[in-house]
Amino acid sequence: MYLLTVTGSFSSAHALRDYGGPCERLHGHNWRVEVTVSARELDARGLALDFRVLRDHLGEICDRLDHRLLNELEPFDRLNPTSENLARYLAGEMESRLRDADPPVRVREVRVWESEGSSAAWRDGEPE
To answer: Which listed residue, 66, 105, 121, 125, has the most CB atoms within 10 A of its CB?
Structure first.
C-alpha cells in the first residue's frame, strides 16, 4: 500500500457550544491540516496520485473555511465546531473529491492542528 500526505492551512474563528470554559467564547486558530490517502496501485507513470491534485483539493476546502466564523458555516451551524468534528468534515470533503481517482485512493487520516501542541485526527477504521 502507498501512502501520500499533503498539508494545508487556514485561519478561522469558532466558539464551542456547551463547553463550559473559555473556549465557549469566540476565539480563533491558525489551523494546520494534514491529509493522508492510500492507494494499492500506481498508474502507468508510477504515481498513486499527483501531489498537486491532493494539494489543489485541500486548498479549495481550506479556502472555504479561511477567515470565516465556523459556527456560521454548514455543517457547523448545527454541529459543534470542535477539532474532532472539523477533522471528520475535512475527511468527508476530501473523500467526495477523490471518489473518481484512477487508480482508486482512500482517505486514511486527516489531522487538524489548532495550535503547535494540540491536534485531533479522524482515521479510517475500515480494512483495506
So the answer is: 105
